[in-house]
Specification:
By secondary structure, the chain is of the alpha+beta class. The chain folds into three domains: 85 residues, Rossmann fold (3-Layer(aba) Sandwich), CATH 3.40.50.20; 70 residues, ATP-grasp fold, A domain (Dna Ligase, domain 1); 241 residues, D-amino Acid Aminotransferase, Chain A, domain 1 (2-Layer Sandwich). It contains 15 helices and 20 strands. It is globular, with a radius of gyration of 21 Å.
């Protein structure tokens, strides 16, 4: 087992990894930018190293500085968390080349799953169902329009690299295709430096269902059930829950076993998530994330398994401690992402937290690195915390989440807590039948 791990990240995920290290008897090294010098991760890690200025490019994306910090502190492994360099295959290669262990999958798997068109082709050959679409990248608008007509409108033109809703355009009629195609390519080039796009059938009312998987270096693979991430705004998740209110045991076992068999066939090692669109009883592969997810605590709450600790053990060469046989899913869990944003305009709200009170009670977990007096920097993602609750069933879980929200005090900045309270009272959310398009339509109607 490792004696010392460097965490190449910040905020709540850095703190989450530090906690896992401490429980495993592993020393931790926190790297930080000048803006994060007073962060909770820096305060609680065994060691800390400043790796650059406030800009992420000069710090958390600064590979030479991160590798130097690992060398200077004598770290044996590097955990990338999520975001930043977590799905950067070149970083994973350089980590290994410099004698450290990358706590994540092999670079070739990051590469193949990072390109959505390649990923789709790869998993299709391994037996996963995919959304009807083009066979790879499309570079010509006329060719794309022909393919879209054959698939049947509406279709969506999607950037092969990146995510977050950028480089994605829905086309409902053939006459609009050329313009949407050009716009998607331009957005993809501007955001990801790659104008490659492909075409898929656009599903009108799908659910976003993701399967948590784990593999090791001994040929083992397992799935840990699904998370329903259908509460979204502009392709960004706001609420995640497990199990999905629309997936039964038979469907869960079928798609979960298929996902596990896929990663086993790939020889995949570490944590990963295979994401699907689900409509009319059918699953369609969307993408694979080769890292731990923001919403991993939801799965931890219903399985009792520490996913970060499992990542570390697998990276150290241990076989999976998780077995499909006897794995039980207990109750219902839900996570809300708390952003420092205006709950109506979604404009970021950095600044000093004048007062903070964490919710508590049975079945309540709060993952965050904030504290009273903490100054939220304007340089990074606006998420400042995750409120996770567990209940015996979905109804109890929702009631507990409502109660936990009322207990949470974050003063000095605007947050999205009022938005979450409102969502939890909506009939469509309570029924569980909402799609990934529901919230945006509901917000648009509310603002009229």
């Amino acid at each position: 087992m490792f004696k010392k791990i460097l965490i190449a990240n910040r905020g709540e995920i850095a703190l989450r990894i530090i906690r896992a290290c401490r429980e495993m008897g592993i020393q931790s090294v926190a790297v930080h930018s000048t803006a994060d010098a007073n962060s909770m991760a820096v305060r609680l890690a065994d060691e800390s190293v400043c790796i650059g200025a406030a800009s992420a490019r000069e710090s958390y994306l600064n590979i030479p500085s991160i590798l130097s910090a690992a060398a200077v502190t004598g770290a044996e492994a590097i955990h990338p968390g999520y975001g930043f360099l977590s799905e950067n295959a070149q970083f994973a290669r350089m980590v290994a080349e410099h004698g450290f262990t990358f706590i994540g999958p092999r670079p070739e798997h990051i590469d193949s799953m990072g390109d959505k068109a390649v990923a789709k082709d790869t998993v299709k050959k391994l037996g996963l169902p995919v959304v009807p679409g083009s066979d790879g990248i499309i570079t010509d608008a006329k060719e794309g329009e022909k393919i879209a007509t054959e698939i049947g409108f509406p279709v969506i033109v999607k950037a092969s690299s990146g995510g977050g809703g950028k480089g994605m355009k829905v086309v409902r009629e053939a006459r609009d295709f050329a313009e949407a195609f050009a716009t998607a390519r331009a957005e993809a080039k501007a955001n990801f430096g790659d104008d490659s796009v492909y075409i898929e059938k656009y599903l009108e009312r799908p659910k976003h269902i993701e399967i948590q998987i784990f593999g090791d270096n001994h040929g083992n693979a397992v799935h840990l059930g699904e998370r329903d991430c259908s509460t979204q705004r502009r392709h960004q998740k706001l609420i995640e829950e497990a199990p999905s209110p629309v997936i039964d045991d038979a469907a869960r076992a079928k798609i979960g076993d298929l996902a596990a068999e896929t990663v086993r066939a790939m020889g995949y090692s570490g944590a990963g998530t295979i994401e699907f669109l689900y409509q009319d009883g059918e699953f369609y592969f969307m993408e694979m994330n080769t890292r731990i997810q923001v919403e991993h605590p939801v799965t931890e709450m219903v399985t009792g398994i520490d996913l970060i600790a499992e990542q570390i053990r697998v990276a150290a060469g241990d076989p999976l401690s998780i077995k499909s046989e006897g794995l039980r899913f207990r109750g219902h869990a839900m996570e809300i992402r708390i952003n420092a944003e205006d709950p109506e305009t979604f404009i970021p709200s950095p600044g000093e937290i004048r007062q903070f009170h964490m919710p508590g009670g049975m079945g309540v977990r709060f993952d965050s690195a904030i504290y009273t007096g903490y100054k939220i920097p304007p340089h990074y993602d606006s998420m400042i915390g995750k409120l996770i609750v567990h209940g015996r069933n979905r109804d109890e879980c929702i009631r507990r989440m409502r109660r936990a929200i009322t207990e949470t005090v974050i003063e000095g900045v605007r947050t999205t807590l009022p938005l979450h309270a409102w969502i939890l009272d909506q009939p469509e959310f309570l029924s569980g039948e909402y799609s990934i398009h529901w919230l945006e339509k509901k917000l648009a109607a509310r603002s009229e």
